[in-house]
Amino acid sequence: MESKRIHALVHGRVQGVFFRDYTRREALRLGLTGWVRNLATGSVETEFEGSPDQVKGMLDWLSIGSPQSLVSLVEHHEITATGENHGFEVIYM
Fold first, then answer.
1. Per-residue pLDDT tens for 35-71?
2. 38 catalytic residue (yes or no)
3. Cα distances (Å, whole numbers) of residue 33 to 68, 83, 90
4. Which residues span the domain enclosing 83?
5. Nearest to 48 by CA among 59, 63, 60
6. pTM exceeds 0.90
7. Euclidean distance between the first and final Cα of the chain, in Å?
8. 20 in active site
């Protein structure tokens, strides 16, 4: 199976609205592996890996976000799939 890995930055009102937890839940629902974390800039950074359909589903979800978030922009690019993650984790800094 072909795997894709995406690195994304999500901008807007995405901190303090459970965005990381909802991202983790959606990634697990879609069967993706990877991680998500808050940045000091107020944005959220995430990397996730899975099939092209799973990745598309996550990108679609990120553009909407959690119920109380207000996503203004999702920047993303494909990076080399590694298969290194097992599960999906929230990184607390």
1. 999 999 999 999 999 999 999 999 999 999 999 999 9
2. yes
3. 24, 8, 11
4. 4-91
5. 59
6. yes
7. 34
8. yes
Helix, coil or strand: residue 52: helix
Domain at 34, CATH number: 3.30.70.100
Catalytic one of 20, 25, 29, 85: 20
| Separation CA 14–CA 17 (nearest Å) | 6
- Look at residue 65 and give its three-state secondary structure: coil
Q: What's the full length of the chain, in residues? A: 93
Which pLDDT does position 13 carry in this prediction?
A: 97
**pLDDT band for position 1 (50/70/90)?**
low
Catalytic residue among 24, 37, 38, 85: 38
- Output the six-digit token pair for 28: 């697990």
Q: Please count the structural domains in the chain.
A: 1
